[in-house]
């Protein structure tokens, strides 16, 4: 038998481990923690996309930290600093020449160690199970969010252990349990005021100096869009940044985007041609053995001798056409400029993606065959082979025959009969999928960039619309968020864990709709910002950056937690344990 003048830390630690592992409730709680992590690790392999994975994992984190780990810590604190005081275990231990500080720190360290080991096991289990069930492929999104979860869990366990020990030395066991129950409940409702505020803002409108109205929700969507694009937190991030920056530089307006000749020329000549995806040379298209189906009424350009049923041929010269997918692929391989290469690669990937979203993209997006069609009027003709006469091929004739062949519209305008030659002309020779992809992208971005320009360059009319109501409610919410440390700590997790940014993209079947709120959890806190005005009553361009930095909550809570620890050591040293 070894006798010690002062029992070493290692022996004390082993003694406390033996004590805590004889506690059935403790073992059950640890088993549940292990089971929860194993279950999510198994389930994680069945998520089809990153968005679903993030949403599922956040619910797991909420349950794991706010319920299971919280209860485990509460139970351990009660075991060491209530049960063991009541049954005189601590008193007997201290009689063996063990300092109170050493005993306290041994038990405190053991609780931290147990929590951190549980966190590490959860991290390893989830990633290992996902890795093995996904054909030994590492999921980097899961690795990122579980790493954040691990670090956040280490911090939370440190704060909770110190705080609950502090409570049990100040209050009775019953009072401590009640306070902890209230805290546990508040965790799940602390973010509800934010959700109520956002729900109310859907019905609030802001009026600008040009008399245009936008809802608060639309404005937040616009500024969130800028935030994620500028941070490269969006799918096809290089391409998105390129389009966004150019649209803002040229100050394109939504209402004149497709009607202003200058806007169209700026886009084709400066934005897209600079990438090398627009042909420098004109292309010639010829098609014979066509049949005129219908002619527009009261069109002076068409001779009276032209009738429906006449045979015709078309000679068409187009300028500024877009290159093919194969040519784009070759361009990417030979491009030396890294930035341009990344943009082109994004464009190629998007084009393949968007074409796959439609059963027939040319048919479903026929309305986009307009702005980037540049006809050489001097070289483009329609020849009526029945009357042996010809006219210039006007762009409106090309638009009408194109749309009629694809979807049956423009019936009363210049159209051609449905036959194999018309099919060949429209569906093959006039099919420019890269141009369609580019036009889809333009329609995606123009709503968000034009609204951003409006919000940052036009003054908000303060005495009209709901600005006053919005400002008052947001100020109240900000005060609440400043004081809500539960929400603040969750904000640290969500800020650093982030989202599945590769799923931040426009809905394929919408003209221009992207949703950033979809991956958010109802019960978790996220960084919030207010739409702040400058001296001209314009919204700051970087208003989304003006928020409370999440790490400040960690600094404050760390200081408070250290106070809890020092105070409880002081109390423990003076507590009557006999």
TrEMBL record:
Coiled-coil residue windows: none
Q: Does the keyword Transmembrane apply?
A: yes
Q: Which UniProt keywords apply?
A: Membrane, Transmembrane, Transmembrane helix
> Where are the bilayer-spanning segments?
20-47, 59-82, 103-129, 149-171, 178-196, 551-570
This protein's record includes keyword Transmembrane helix = yes
Give the top-rank taxon of the lineage listed in the UniProt record for this protein: Bacteria
The identity of this protein, by name, is: ABC transporter permease
